[in-house]
Amino acid sequence: MSSRRRGRVLPGFGLSLGVTLSYLSLIVLAPLAALLWKAGDAGLATLWAGISSERAVATYRLTLGTALAATAFNAVVGFLLAWVLARYRFPGRRLLDAVVDLPFALPTAVAGIALSAIFAPTGWAGALLEPLGLKVAYAPAGIAVAMAFTSIPFVVRSLQPVLEDLEPEVEEAAFTLGAGDLAVFARVIFPALLPAFLSGCALAFSRALGEFGAIIFIAGNIPMETEVTTLLTYIRLEEFDYPGAAGLAAAMLALSFVTLFVVNALQLWRIRREGRA
Amino acid sequence: MKRRSILLLALTAAVIASPAAARAPAKEILNVSYDVSRETFADINPAFVAHWKKTTGQDVKVNQSHAGSSAQARAVLEGLQADVVTFNQVTDVQALRDKGQLIPADWRARLPNRSSPYYSLPAFLVRAGNPKGIKTWDDLVKPGVGIVIPNPKTSGNGRYSYLAAYAYALDKTKDPAKAKAFAQKFLANVVVFDTGGRAATTSFVEKGQGDVLITFEAEALGTAKEVGPKVQVVTPPVSLLAEFPVTVVDKVADQRDSRALAEGYLKFLYTPPAQTILARHYYRVSDRSVSAKYRQQFKPTRILTVEQVLGGWEKVGKDHLASGGILDQVFVRK
Known about the structure:
The complex is a heterodimer of chains A (about 280) and B (about 325). Chain A has helices at about 15-40, 45-50, 55-85, 95-100, 100-105, 110-120, 125-130, 140-165, 170-175, 180-210, 215, 230-240, 240-275. Chain A is mainly alpha-helical and about 280 residues long. Chain A has a single domain, classed as MetI-like (MetI-like fold), CATH 1.10.3720.10. The radius of gyration of chain A is 23 Å and the shape is globular. The two termini of chain A are about 35 Å apart. With about 325 residues, chain B is an alpha/beta fold. Chain B folds into two domains: about 25-120 and about 245-295, D-Maltodextrin-Binding Protein, domain 2; about 120-240 and about 300-330, Periplasmic binding protein-like II (D-Maltodextrin-Binding Protein, domain 2, 3-Layer(aba) Sandwich), CATH 3.40.190.10. Helices cover about 50% and strands about 15% of the residues of chain B. Chain B has helices at about 1-15, 40-55, 70-75, 90-100, 110-115, 155-175, 175-190, 195-205, 215-225, 250-255, 260-270, 270-280, 290-295, 305-310, 315-320, 325-330; strands at about 25-35, 60-65, 85, 120, 120-125, 145-150, 190-195, 210-215, 230-235, 240, 240-245, 245-250, 285, 300-305. In chain B, the strands form four sheets. A five-stranded mixed β-sheet of chain B has the order 7-6-8-5-9. Chain B has a four-stranded mixed β-sheet with strand order 2-1-3-12. In chain B, β1, α2 (about 40-55) and β2 (about 60-65) form a beta-alpha-beta unit.
């Protein structure tokens, strides 16, 4: 019973670390390196011209705006879904639980075609919304819908296990100390969920930023209006404009990094604050 | 030794590829093509396989790959093993030469009609009864007309539609500035830019977007036949010649030793049986007897060419399609 051996139930640390690192390098770092290589090839001026063109800036605005809207929507609905799945027992719960993963399993292009068929003016949802003046398909709203659809599992799946693991004793203790329902939720449950909730939302946000397949079928793809950054990247590739595409891709990558960095910083700040308290 | 291992590899591949492993290993070629040619080549390939069997006794197979023409060109450049390409755009084939040295410079001279076995032109598909009264290109730039075309940046089909609008205006006014303004108005009326030709057809027909779809006459006529009376085809009195250039990809064919088969396949496209299939898919063909037989399905049209009106593909590439070119200038909305 030596504490020195803890964490090494299986032998072969060196080998498994080696495999892990080579695998990560191969599937994550190599493509990124190739991207930066292509980007670096072009020279900074060309690269910057591609990144800062008026059309590219319009795509950032649209992509960020719709991704934020989709994430806000997912934060609310995803929280609700995770809560219902973790806290209640009802017939069909397992089915609902499985359905949450569907956006992961469904090819995004299929999702895009299905969504655009539903939300087009000739589809059943579109036919209801259009008379109200709500244009979803072939408008920015459609992009947000597609993003929300493909990224909601991140929020649910991040929250659900944490919710399920919350010790009922903690809540009971809060009740016995005289806290009301709202106070228990706001001061006991929610703070415990916050890290998972934030990272779920951040993952959903990054996923929404990078979404392509589902969007191009519902967006309308009109330059300056409904063209997302991933599509413009694709268009640049079609034009054999590799530096342009690499520049846009690097910009997207930087955005994703910033998102993840912000979330990590938030969590660190929270941990420190709690450590002091 | 090396040769034997290659043979073994080929055999294994053939065994894996064909479920009936007892048959002699079949030779295969891959035809990499544009988006809306799926059904056409699905008809041509069996006819070719039968023809090849009859003339050489060999069992062969032709595999197909379809997507936007430029996307396909890029795939081939990045290593997709295409023995032949059948594109809808001279610039996309030329890219195989300019960016990858996969084909010789004189590729257009290797087969008749500048290596284009059939042709078509951008035509209009409108809703039943043509409620917006769309007859010619001038009707497309009127306010309130919604146009659906595939994205000219990703689709050869869409590029022809843009170039046709520009060429029409240039031919009429002889003034590049006016033609550019016309093209700008034309693109401003577009309500959906799908990335490929077939997606655009779906947006127009199934999802009710826009008042007019502009696509190859072949796709327009084929769609009208398929979906019936809720749409109708309007062939404009003037349009632009859309060529469908084909070539053997020499580098791949030499590597895979498929040149004879690949060349045989492309030559077959010019024979009356293949030309008949093409005409049945509403492409215009050059074979005299076939073209006479199918004359009634096409409206007489004055056909402008890129060479006459726009100074050739090289110039189009430089002036219109290059980054910052005329297309970029009129494409982006202010």
